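We modelled the chain as a single entity of 99 amino acids. Its sequence is:
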Amino acid sequence: MARRCELTGKGVLTGNNVSHAKNRSRRRYLPNLQQVSLMSDALGQTVRLRITRNAQRTVDHRGGLDNFLAKATDAQLSLRVRRLKREIEKARAAQTAAL
């Protein structure tokens, strides 16, 4: 499984460990990935995603998963989340058509 956030696309970065003597060795900066369950209001079900803690804070700030995906571009989302975004858009369109 890739170490990549499903919502933001944030992945592994590389850099150097630098000692006091300025010796450099390569290292990896891993994203803070968490397995979370987020509720979709339009679908009425929970979705399990592997996202970074920063992405979870952004989802909360924007008012939930549905609002986050409405503003997110498809380029940064994983394939599974892009499919979820289409389902949510269809469900929202059906809800507005019913009103």
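As a brief sanity check on the tokenised model: The chain has one domain: 13-98. The domain at 13-98 is CATH 2.30.170.40 (Ribosomal Protein L24e; Chain: T;).
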